[in-house]
Amino acid sequence: MINQLHGIEDAQTLAEAIVDTIHEPFIVLDAQFRVLAASRSFYETFEVDPEHTIGSLLYGLGDGQWDIPALRVLMETIIPEKTAMDGFEVDHDFPGVGHRVMLLNARKVLYETSSDATILLAFTDITARRAIEMEKEELLEKTEDLLRKNRVLLQELQHRVANSLQIIASILMLKARIVTSEETRHHLEDAHQRVMSVAAVQSHLHAMGGVEQIEVGPYLTQLCASLGSSMIGDDQPIALKVIADHGMIGSDKAVSVGLIVTELVINAVKYAFPITKPDALVYVTYESQGPDWKLIVSDNGVGKTNSDTATTPGGLGTIIVKALVQQLDAHMEVVSAATGMSVSITRAPIETWMPNAA
Fold first, then answer.
1. How far lies 357's CA from each of 30, 202, 271, 328, in Å?
2. Where do the domains of the chain lie?
3. Residue 339 DSSP code
4. What does CATH list as the number for 8-125?
5. Per residue in 166-199, pLDDT tens?
């Protein structure tokens, strides 16, 4: 406990010393809003002097520059009702000082031995802070505007790519119909099929909004549904099923994965079932653990014998798949038997994988 002051003069001396040592602008008012005391910081900040401040009405300071509507609301309406207010913002242009944004903290002090009241008013200059906040808001608006423009440009680019792929596919098919060479026709139809595969992958990625990370399950499900509707006829019903976890993959890698699945599914639908098979099935499975993942495309078709696999160099589809697997820094394993074929694409070794469902 500190010793009690000896008298009123000592208390007044202490109060004046406290006011004068406060770093922020600070004033003491009587009940009629006349200035009883002010801190040195108040005089320096608002460029006024004690001679024209002490005893003056708050609203008359600086030739009336303090006659601010917001300040009147605080002093004459809020303080009488609440006796205290924190963070009351005043935005004003002070002559000779310039534009300032101030946070006002006010306290009304009541005394037990007197009906008089004293009002303490402290100012915090947040002009610089508000300027930074406005700059950030403007920068955010500009950034959002640039992102909107980029999205529009991306959509336009995607539409143009899709249109270009359709044009190329149409030209290839037209050429395939008019050539006389069976070998040339086969190559043109094969090229047409690959262009349509790229178009299908591009279309499904575009439908997902062009985000950086894509959930693999819905992506492969939609892609395979599209492949099934375009390739599987009523004369040879083939079930095409997708099982995938909730793994995510970058949109750039999703293009390669989509093209691999497209090539392998097309190959299975075209060649795995040369005769009608009641339970014909093509399975696409995907599992991931962190950055590692494994993709399996399998079927229960006729498969290939070891001698067939050894003597067949592989077509354009095989070459494309091998190139894409290498691009993904993965490795491929093909298992084929009379009961079907399974192609596994592994990004990295993982201890436990879902079993081949074929």
1. 87, 28, 19, 24
2. 8-125, 137-210, 213-358
3. T
4. 3.30.450.20
5. 787 788 888 888 888 888 887 787 777 777 767 7
